[in-house]
């Protein structure tokens, strides 16, 4: 995990709140996660505080602050739209956010009880999200782009698969996916990192989608890859019908995106069993079809 570029701690969170949001400063603060990009702390029972720990993540937080409140109003699942924003202070150089605490467990560790219900929930969520984005939507050089733009990475990562037959099967899937027609519609709003660790399940049902740090606009097939990440084969068509707008070319590209992301997770998650497991299950799902 990359080292923090600035010191972040619960003490810093307390000082920033005291100065900028004093009505929240008396709430209990506990570290929930100290991840690649952000320090995330529970703030009382109702909130989380997200402080970027790297410059790269600081712009992602600004993107969330600008765009998520408007998107949240029309989405059928909850998202962590900031309810308060913070400014640099006490030697800390970046913007930061207070977001609602969303109950539930990540689907990577607690899968939905009913895959059919999950297919309908996620299909409906993406139908609502995938609308034309404004010209100043955040750019992302790796997500939402034409699928062929991922070819170099896929070709670099395929040799990490030990089984020659598996490598050959994956290459065939990739070649079919990049041969599909490119997206020729307007750039659509995308979550762009929609996998089971960014989906919450509460009382057995998909309840929220989190971590919009990669939010961008482009080919909706990027997000539709989630069908191979969380759903059994028997429920992917339910998801596709619930989404309602995936023609054969889009569906083929979505499978290609699932393959590309599976290879990324498998190649770069040696120290993260959770993400490696998502990669392995996704690859198996892509190749079984």
Automatic annotation (TrEMBL):
Q: What are the residue boundaries of the Aminoglycoside phosphotransferase domain, all occurrences included?
A: 28-257
**Superkingdom of the source species:** Bacteria
Q: Does the keyword Transferase apply?
A: yes
Record keywords: Transferase
Q: Which Pfam families match?
A: APH
**Keyword RNA-binding recorded:** no
Kindly list the GO molecular function terms attached to this UniProt entry.
transferase activity
Q: Which InterPro entries match?
A: AGP_Transferase, Aminoglycoside_PTrfase, Kinase-like_dom_sf
Q: What PANTHER family has UniProt attached to this entry?
A: AMINOGLYCOSIDE PHOSPHOTRANSFERASE-RELATED-RELATED, BIFUNCTIONAL AAC_APH
- Protein name listed in UniProt: Phosphotransferase
